[in-house]
Amino acid sequence: MELKSNHSSPVLTDPIPVNNSRLGIHSNLLSYQQSGGSLSSGKYMTIPRKKPGKLEDVWSNGWLEAMRSSSPPRKRLIKDKDFTIEAAADDFDIAYCSWMIKYPSALKSFDQILKNAKNKKVAVFLDYDGTLSPIVDDPDRAFMSDSMRSAIRDVAKYFPTAIISGRSRDKVYELVGLTELYYAGSHGMDIMGPVSHAESGDHPNCIRSTDQQGKEVNLFQPAREFIPMIDEVLKTLVENTKDIKGANVENHKFCTSVHYRNVEEKNWPTIAQRVHDILKDYPRLRLTHGRKVLEIRPVIDWNKGKAVEFLLESLGLSDRDDVLAIYIGDDKTDEDAFKVFRERNLGYGILVSSVPKESNAFFSVRDPSEVKKFLKALVTWKKFEKA
């Protein structure tokens, strides 16, 4: 794995090698020597803005193409009693029907899922944005419905349940408001999980803490060293994008994101170039693309898939044959978890999407309303099984 040597982009060119330990975090967590962007400096550097017109960097390294490919086409709104759902105009065309053959509906395949879940310990992992709440123009208003909250509360009564989000852990807890769950923020770089005597609890980046109810928990933060650097980049991003109408920089503590959902497409090259100019001085940070968002994250061997493995081990479910895990998510960052599920045969990844797109998931649902139906069906099955 190497970074591009021409300093035109800090993005990864090859996958980070997986460590030989079970969690892949003990010897290779921080793989690079610091060579730009001091972690200890208290000063914040402002990068001079480039004059409009010089955008060769973001064209040549494929950023603009990635921004467009990760941004769904214009959609129409469909009203549901709990959600305002964005749905593509061609949801029911031939391409989508063909796609459904490869990624069948999790609702229509529910009996198949239950057949494999029988006599097994089921664990549930959920993304937040686009999964439990609709995608909205203002990230601070991505609220889930009361009925969805009730469904998740019921799920947590019967199954170990965790939410793994790109948002900060504190923010996603504020939005969900349920103490019965485990939370992993910043794409799994900030995990509050159960106390266990497993290897994960002895890791130097894992400390004992207490949750909102005063219960003892493990707090795992593999990117803690990067907080000063992330803060530095955050302040610079806010300053250097404040003149771009619609741009929104969000702080996730261990990573930061630049939303361009409300930015006119003609200004996407400008926002990409601004981000590029800042990140080229921080080789220990990398860029990933989400749904109309640029996400800046530390270059460490950690993602949502690793977070699932860590939580399963913390729950004492990692080495058991009678476990079936379910992960539901809608974004590119959830693919890391879907991939782990396939490679380790952990259970089922379920993609939330109303448009065809390639995925490592096994099944699909169209939108948060179908996620809620699936979760309610799980609870009904468990109640019937225990009766």
From TrEMBL:
Pathway named in the protein's UniProt entry: Glycan biosynthesis; trehalose biosynthesis
Cofactor section: a divalent metal cation
Catalytic activity: alpha,alpha-trehalose 6-phosphate + H2O = alpha,alpha-trehalose + phosphate
Pfam families from the UniProt entry: Trehalose_PPase
Secretion signal span: none
EC assignment: 3.1.3.12
Entry annotated with the keyword Hydrolase: yes
Example of a GO biological process term: trehalose biosynthetic process
Top-level enzyme category: hydrolase
Function: Removes the phosphate from trehalose 6-phosphate to produce free trehalose. Trehalose accumulation in plant may improve abiotic stress tolerance.
Family: Belongs to the trehalose phosphatase family.
Name of this protein: Trehalose 6-phosphate phosphatase
